[in-house]
Every structure is written in structure tokens, then in C-alpha cells.
Amino acid sequence: MHQVAIPWRVKVGVIVAGYAGVALVAAALIIRRYLAEQLDPSTFNGGMAAGGDWFLELFLVGLLLVPTFLLALIIRNSETAYTKLAKVLLGFALALPVCVGLMAIPAVGQSKNSVVSLIGYVCLYRVFAFPMTVVGFAGCCVLAKFRRPRRLILYSVGIEIMSVVLIFAITTLR
């Protein structure tokens, strides 16, 4: 039995289509949630709405892990491509301490200005995505065949964990 190799362009097309599909699903779910809140704002206050938002975020980040896992599988035999992925993951991990720092500024965390408030929400959701990002980083680290990308991904995990320790220290030592 002869297996036909899938061309590189088809593999990349599947990954791009996966990310586009996740973006469409995310946009639809977020718009649906926003419209439901606008329909009856009294039911969207307090911890239940925040919990629902967090579960929606975890679901969307979990959806993003599927094409990322496929990408890691496709490029795992190329050291240069996997190193580029590891650098992107490192950059994403570096966004967490920046978000923690921005949220520590009262003007960002409690602003009534829509632009500054949006920055605060983005930072908050980045912090809440911590569990799923660590799962994604761990999966990419396990799939890494080469030493340098694995080391970069482990640095990313360390940055994520130290940022959460920093959040814990900031919130409990006040």
C-alpha cells in the first residue's frame, strides 16, 4: 500500500483555515454574549456573568489549541520553523507580565474611558487564559524535537508561572 504525502501548502492551508474558523466562532459567541447582555443587563452583573465569561474564554482558548497543536505537529521536524513558533510563544508569554503591570495601574483597571477600559479587559482576559496557555506551552514543549525551541518554550512556561506568582503577591500583600 502506497501512502500519498500531503503537500506543504495543503497543510498550511488547513492550519490557516483552522485559525480562521476559530476566529469566526469566537466572534459569533462574543457578539451573542454581548447582545444577550444588552437585552437584559440586570441578569449580567455579579459573579455568575464573570464565571460565564471565564468559561467562554477557556472554551475559545481551547479551540485555539487545536490548530496550534496541528501546527506543532506539522513543523516539528524543522528546527527553524519550530524555533520561530517558540519565539512567538515566548512573545505571548511576555505579554502576561505586561498585562499584570498594566492592571496594577488603577487608571487602567478601573477606568470609565472606553479605550482604557478595553485595555484593562484585554489584560484581564490574558491573565485568565493562564491555565490553557500553560497547557498549550506544555504540549508544544513535549512535541519539540530540538533543544533550542524546547528551552524557549520552557522559558515561556517559567514567565507564565512567575507572572501568576506576582499576581498572587500583589493581591495578597496589599
Task: Tell me what you see in this structure.
The protein is mainly alpha-helical and 174 residues long. The chain has 2 domains: 1-75; 78-174. The protein contains 7 helices and no strands.
Summarize the structure.
With about 170 residues, this protein is mainly α.
Topology:
Layout: H1 8-39, H2 47-75, H3 79-104, H4 106-109, H5 114-128, H6 130-143, H7 147-172
Helix pairs in contact: 1-2, 2-6, 3-5, 3-7, 6-7
- Mean of residue pLDDT values: 88
| Helicity level | over 70%
What number of domains? 2
The major β-sheet equals: none
Helix segment count? 7
Strand percent estimate: under 5%
Cα-based radius of gyration, to the nearest Å: 19 Å
Q: For the terminal residues, how far apart are their CA atoms? A: 67 Å
| Class computed from helices, strands and strand pairing | mainly alpha
- The number of strands is 0
Output the helix-strand order.
HHHHHHH
Overall geometry comes to globular
The parts where pLDDT drops under 50 for at least 5 residues are: none
Q: Keywords for this structure?
A:
single chain; 174 residues; mainly alpha; 2 domains; 7 helices
